[in-house]
Amino acid sequence: MEMTLSSQATDWREGRRLRAWELRQKGWKQQAIAEALGVTQGAVSQWLKRAEKGGLQALGRRKAPGASPRLSLAQRSQLPELLSQGAEAFGFRGDIWTQPRIADLIRRQFGVSYHPSQVGRILKACGWSSQKPIHRATQRNEEAIRRWKEERWPQVKKRQ
Question: Where in the sequence is the domain holding 102, given as residue range(s)?
Fold first, then answer.
């Protein structure tokens, strides 16, 4: 079996573009290529121009660019330092960072607005993880709990 460029493609779209190039090299017309591949003549034209300009790698799969980050790398590197100062240092009551608080801090410090739901993604990129607060009663007596576990629990367990 003949090894073709299109058979080495990483996905079907890339394979289709490479096949268009192969057919063109065999002397096929754009219209015939478009009909054979089930695409428009304009698509074939764009692919062939890309290949002529940038080589076969121009027909390869490309990652979607997405939106550019609103925080610069310098600003992103400052964020952990700011967070380490604690929430109270920035006027919040209580020293716990929540996503809405961090979004507010980013807006005040850098003039960049993020929805609180996106803050976790930014923190992950900075190497931070979201913290889950431990809910414990303020009247909790650790010594009494330890004694109960060591003295009373074994007695209760024996009766069962």
Answer: 73-125
